[in-house]
Amino acid sequence: MSVAASPSPTPQHRAAGLLTVQVVAPDGVRWSGNARGVTVPSVSGSLGILPRHEPVAAVLAAGVVRVRPATGDPVEVTVTGGFVVVDDDEVSVLADGTVAPGDA
């Protein structure tokens, strides 16, 4: 399974109003980089995350994580569950597993 990536996160991301995002599964990093926003499927419903979001930790349901990179096309990663942690414009999506496109 290939790993999608955008340019490496930079210290200037705060000045640009961006998030530093990592989507990680047990078998590797699915996506990492700077983003304008992220939407995750929490067990309480869809959770939208933008820069300056309050710190939060949430349990993920099976569904699609949507990342809007700082540049380029949106990225979607289908997860089987897991956790998301948001703190100080850093978003860590820790997936129990991911589903390859076409396997869903």
UniProtKB/TrEMBL annotation:
Start and end residues of each ATP synthase F1 complex delta/epsilon subunit N-terminal domain: 19-96
Main location: membrane
InterPro entries referenced in this protein's UniProt entry, alphabetically: ATP_synth_F1_dsu/esu, ATP_synth_F1_dsu/esu_N, ATPsynth_dsu/esu_N
Name recorded for this polypeptide: ATP synthase epsilon chain
Organismal lineage: Bacteria, Bacillati, Actinomycetota, Actinomycetes, Micrococcales
Keyword Cytoplasm in record: no
Job of this protein: Produces ATP from ADP in the presence of a proton gradient across the membrane.
Subunit structure and binding partners: F-type ATPases have 2 components, CF(1) - the catalytic core - and CF(0) - the membrane proton channel. CF(1) has five subunits: alpha(3), beta(3), gamma(1), delta(1), epsilon(1). CF(0) has three main subunits: a, b and c.
Compartments, as annotated in UniProt: Cell membrane
HAMAP family xref list: ATP_synth_epsil_bac
Gene3D superfamilies, A to Z: F0F1 ATP synthase delta/epsilon subunit, N-terminal
Topology within the bilayer: Peripheral membrane protein
Family: Belongs to the ATPase epsilon chain family.
The keyword Cell membrane is assigned to this record: yes
Record keywords: ATP synthesis, Cell membrane, CF(1), Hydrogen ion transport, Ion transport, Membrane, Transport
